[in-house]
Amino acid sequence: MGFVQACAKAEVEPDRPFLYEWDGDPIAVCVVDNEYFAVDDTCTHDRWSLCDGYVEDGEIVCTLHMARFCVRTGAVRTPPAYEPLKVYPVKVEGEFVLIDPEAGTYADE
Prior knowledge:
The chain is an all-beta fold.
């Protein structure tokens, strides 16, 4: 499949993830220091949308129980979650953020 347009860069706020859905699967698009990232939107602890949370210090925070995940690697930074998030390749073309929703992987850390 390859890369698809997920959103405009302007739609992604520095402290708030943008929700993109691909074939029914929710993906959170985040920006940290003008670099864009995409991770699974669902917290691995209690199935809560991470787009209901916020981004802080390079981490996406689940507001249900405050689990934190690295937006670069998907790694758990703060329990109660213990399973990482899937991360997706991202590229920026002009004013748009593109992701490859079929190439998501779990990073080793």
